Amino acid sequence: MADTFTITDNRTGKSVEVPLHDGGISSKGLRELDPNLYFYDPSYMQTAACRSTVTYIDGDAGILRYRGYPIEQLADQSTYLEVAYLLIHGELPNAAQHEKWVFDITHHTFMHENLRKRFLEGFHYDAHPMGMLVSSLAALSTFYPEAKDIENPESRNKQVLRLIAKVPTLAAACHRFSVGQPFVYPDNNLDFASNFLSMMWRIGDKYEPHPHLVRALDVLFILHADHEQNCGSTAMRVIGSSQADPYSAAAGAAAALYGPLHGGANEAVVRMLQDIGSVANVAAFIQSVKGGAGGRLMGFGHRVYKNFDPRAKIIKKMAYDVFEVTGMNPLLEIALKLEEAALSDDYFVSRKLYPNVDFYSGLIYQAMGFPLEMFTVLFAIPRMSGWLAQWLELIQDPEQKISRPRQIYVGHGERDYVPKISRG
Ligand code: CMC
Q: Which has fewest Cβ within 10 Å: 60, 71, 194, 223?
């Protein structure tokens, strides 16, 4: 049987045969049939906007792979910086490549003093760190005007190093500013996660992070590094498609991540658990979600995963390792009860709603001492490598043009202007 589809315009009787390519049907066929006919697909439920080699997800089987490597193996055996190299370059680094990559990232962690003094310190004292991060990422483009030269591979590589390296520095600076503590400079002797923790928490000379917490944070960074064409990566690609510099595109991607339906869900989950307050209130909360009054069960459901989110599985297990060091997060009991109640309730089961990456990650961040406002920032730090991998792929893809969807116009037909005096 041929791997093709036939589209017939029943108004004219004209048909086109469209081949199936890598599981997708090109919209060119429809264009051939009638250039003024469009697929109506709000929120891109059924639209593939690119061909990609970065990340593979099978939502029914609960599979996530970066460049072909299962997320479980990467979380177990790799490090975030190695994973970032894999996402950016397509292959795992050999020893020399790894050494150079870690050296290069480590030596791009400092930010321009004016970015901190003139820009970050200009924010109001209670500014949300995610708002600060979004704006400071965009501001970075003004420090590196050569980043506009997106056709130049050397320049691209430089901006990639800078963005991956500087995002933890910016993130920690946003936190230190919000609590009125002096900024801590990066320490080139520390690994990526330890350096971030040091910039967050060091007071004076003393700071010794617990190795289990460093590893847990690094694994969380691995799990959050990329997730194919999610809202943030799509924003990165859409902005990048206009040939904007990668700092501006990354600011847009971070802004998309900020929303509570996306990366902002980790903060929203903990606020929801705090509002529920006790295991005794779980049943009533579930009823209020089902009835519509309680909003959504945050940390549940996913556009792609319809069975389980493999990241959530790893995070749930890791939460217990973290709590061994930090002590139990009292909200865990409510979260477990909520999960149990939802997974045995037909409303959630029939809609295939399962815990996603954000359901348990917030509990870990909270146990590690991060303020709630920092949770989405913690998501953005590693997602930077995914955004950049998606951006690099876009820039080098000859099939890509400026993103410019069409619309189905359903407004008024032509009508004559009415002067103010004659309007009712
Ligand atoms: N609680 C209650 N009902 C839900 C939920 C939820 N968390 N998620 C989906 N539904 C219902 C929704 O009301 C709809 O019901 P009906 O068919 O009766 O109208 C049905 O399930 C399908 O939902 P949808 O909104 O059409 O699904 P979507 O693919 O557009 O949304 C989602 C995916 C992740 C935005 C959504 O599940 C959600 O809002 N979840 C809560 C927020 C969250 O945890 N987000 C983090 C996602 S994972 C990390 C990331 O992307 O950054």
A: 60
